[in-house]
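#structure-requests
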Amino acid sequence: MRDEIKQLADQIAPRLTVIRHQIHRHPELAFCEEQTAALVAGALGELGLRVQTGVGKTGVVGLLEGAGATPRRGSLGSTSARCFGIRVDMDALPIQEETGLPFASEVPGVMHACGHDCNTTMGLGAAMILSQLRERLGGGVKFIFQPAEEGEGGAKAMIEDGVLEDPRMDGIVAAHVDAELRVGTVGFKPGVALAAADQIRITVQGQGSHAAHPEQSHDPIVAAAHVILALQTIASRRVGPAEPVVVTIGTIHAGQAPNVIPSQVRLLGTVRTRSEELRDRMPQLIEEVASSAAAALGCTVELEYQRGAPPLKHDDELTEVAAQACRELLGEEQVRVEESKSMGAEDFALFAQALPATQLAVGGVGEGQEKPIGHHPNFMVDEGCLPVGAAALAAVAVRFLAKES
């Protein structure tokens, strides 16, 4: 089926470009993906899939039943005792696009700066390909189009709405365009692929005063500066050098006038860890370090620690099955299998906690193109990734279902 998958991917490539441009022009933030969800649901319906909308608020699920399916009833209708999942994300970011491209975002302050428009399109492309091969599939394929991946809890919302069941999936693959790999190349990361992503909110409480009389204050701005610097010693002095950890403060909010020392400063940041053991230690470490730094300047600290996505751990057997499918499709030299040291995060990790899972990185850097910077106003990848990603997802599903058969 390898050659058929490649041929079908080449045939739909122009349509995938049109779809990607449409999604890119109309980006939508977390849980606001109404237009995108409607586009996805319409395309899946045209392919004859059973479609469910409003899953996890704005998520879409489509079920493709293979001819080899053994009928079983579920919320999406009769389906197979064997089912494989393909998950892609749909949300954009609150960034003003500066690419100047003819299909640039038409929504002020919102753009697809991480490639989720490509991910959505690749998921639809896989559905187009597999719908043409359904007579030879060894089971069903559940397509999951997830909202709110960018730290807003989309995976959790879909799981709470029952996306893992009816039918229960035996394995699942996610796809994400990769700004490090060249077009035509795909990558896999065995073991722990990505870090946990937790959020911290630190309130530094002091005593305000007139800016001309700082001695009458306990200046929370100065204390907050010391807190920020002290937090960096967690990685260098409180955690072993072989254990990766990141504590980043991303926002600082304080004061309203240049001649007033405020009473309070609010810091918002992210904490990244790759082990659950260290993750469990981080609230205490941050509390100790921040409180001590603030206390030296007469201020106090209140810490709110919110857990987000856990570390993403790939299933070794599924990762090898998926990598082998891509080797057969694209060639040995086009598949990279490397251990990851990334401190990035993905709420696909919640799917990976529930069933065998792996994520496919689809090269998005074009010939002669500099590597794009994610979450940047000029982020742009080469659209040659679209048919490659669609074909790779389809090939993984075919091989998994054949293996399960």
